[in-house]
From TrEMBL:
InterPro entries: MM3350-like_sf, Plasmid_pRiA4b_Orf3-like. This is Plasmid pRiA4b Orf3-like domain-containing protein. PANTHER family: LEXA REPRESSOR-RELATED, TNPR PROTEIN. It holds the Pfam family PRiA4_ORF3. Residues 34-207 form the Plasmid pRiA4b Orf3-like domain.
Length: 465
């Protein structure tokens, strides 16, 4: 009855199921070990892996793990699909969303979704799509949850068969490729073998090799470079499986840490240039008839600048004193000085930074590594990484060679860049670092890290730009 005494007609309202979308789940309160199985769809015999990850990782953190587990090279776009229809959702890369490649009606970013929001109970599945052209689809199944007190280490437990080569045409193309490789009489057998390379074995899988890659992946995840830096962009072009030594240095470089006296680093890194700019002065330095610095100025530089008196020649001619000549050339290359009517004069920037270590420091951070060619710049970045990580000279040469090879650089005869060539390729940056004292001279011979702390901080800051 209602308050007015009239009888109200009541009807039964049917239950309407509430659809909880995967990304709306709250996730687990405590981190658990997720035992997952991933299998490549539409490939026979199956290519699969079993692995363990922490439940609290976000999907963009799971992506490089999946790449390493499977053996892909991370050279294409990817996305995820979680849940069952009608509650399924697609999770895209931040890059895909920003560039407008994702569906405008369903723009959920992978970096906003935790794994335990899309996989909550054993048996639930998540799809991983890689290379939209070839169309590699993977099914990930949550097999078991370990809810003990320790956070699990990302580990591969088992697997079968090698990952297909990149860009082979998806499941159908891979099947055709395997048939050609297995048929020596096929007209395309030789070319197919040359394309996949001599090390490709379809039936091979090594769990130890995968776990070595996962340990590197953990270093990248725990000790990343500044995400929007030029160096980070360079690292994204290097497959970490091809350059393990390069990526292992991230753990020692601590690129996002700023430990050390920044003012001391600014003063030390800019000392030689500031001294030279002040010596040029507002009126400039009249050069010799041959276009060199006067002997008196050279003698003064050798006396006043640290390290300049170590050069073996006793002559005060600029052509005999390599450090003097290098400092002059670097001042010009950095836009701080120029030659004008028989004089060496300061540019506007040179005058503005002559007594301003902070501003000159910022200019150096923006201009380094020094290079005329792309390969010199990339070699310079690798030099700076070794300096930031405190490596020995022997390690430095190996790291640069490994990194350049992984980036695809080759010599004119088609061979990879070797340890013998790296000094010349990285020479512009190495010479500048040695000249300023950021790196100890004679790097090829040293077998102990001796570079100053401020030099390491300087390198970190350059790599953060």
């Amino acid at each position: 009855m209602t308050a007015s005494g009239k009888r109200r007609h009541l009807s039964v309202v049917p239950d309407v199921p509430v659809i909880v979308r995967p990304s709306e789940r709250r996730g687990r309160r405590r981190v658990a070990g997720y035992h997952l199985r991933i299998e490549l769809d539409d490939v026979s015999p199956p290519i699969w892996r079993q692995f363990v990850v922490p439940s609290n990782l976000r999907l963009h953190e799971i992506h490089p793990i999946v790449q390493t587990i499977m053996g892909w090279q991370d050279s294409h776009l990817h996305s995820w699909v979680g849940g069952e229809p009608p509650a399924s959702e697609r999770y895209d890369m931040r890059e895909s969303i920003d560039e407008g490649f994702a569906d405008e009606d369903d723009e959920l970013c992978e970096d906003a979704v935790r794994l335990d929001q899309v996989l909550a109970e054993p048996g639930e599945q998540l799809s991983y799509l890689y290379d939209f052209g070839d169309g590699w689809e993977h099914t990930i199944v949550l097999e078991r949850i370990d809810a003990d007190d320790s956070e699990p280490t990302v580990t591969c437990l088992a697997g079968a068969r090698a990952c297909p080569p990149e860009d082979c045409g998806g499941p159908g193309g891979y099947d055709d490729l395997l048939k050609v490789l297995a048929t020596p009489s096929h007209p395309g057998h030789h070319d197919a073998g040359a394309w996949v390379g001599p090390g490709f074995a379809p039936e091979s899988f090594g769990v130890d090799t995968v776990n070595r890659g996962l340990r590197l992946e953990a270093v990248i995840r725990d000790h990343p470079p500044v995400s929007d830096s030029k160096f980070a962009a360079l690292l994204r072009r290097i497959p970490h499986q091809a350059a393990p030594h390069v990526f292992s240095l991230l753990e020692h470089a601590h690129l996002t840490d700023r430990l050390g006296d920044i003012r001391e680093a600014q003063e030390a890194a800019t000392f030689h240039l500031r001294w030279f700019l002040n010596r040029i002065g507002p009126d400039g330095i009249t050069l010799t008839q041959a276009g060199y610095l006067p002997p008196a100025v050279v003698a003064e530089m050798r006396q006043e600048l640290p390290g300049f008196d170590d050069w073996p020649a006793t002559s005060n001619r600029e052509s005999d004193q390599r450090p003097v000549h290098l400092l002059r050339e670097y001042a010009k290359a950095l836009g701080l000085a120029r030659k004008y009517k028989g004089k060496l004069i300061r540019t506007k920037l040179g005058s503005a930074t002559a007594s301003d270590a902070g501003r000159l420091w910022a200019h150096l951070l923006d201009r380094l590594p020094l290079a005329d060619e792309p390969i010199e710049r990339e070699a310079g970045y690798l030099v700076l990484l070794t300096l930031a990580a405190g490596t020995t000279s022997v390690e430095r040469r190996d790291v640069i060679a490994e990194g350049l090879a992984a980036l695809g650089w080759q010599t004119s005869d088609g061979t990879i860049v070797g340890r013998e060539e790296v000094f010349w390729l990285a020479r512009p940056t190495i010479s500048f670092l040695e000249l300023t004292g950021a790196m100890v001279k004679g790097w090829v011979q040293r077998d102990q890290p001796m570079d100053p702390v401020w030099g390491r901080l300087f390198a970190k800051m350059v790599l953060s730009m």
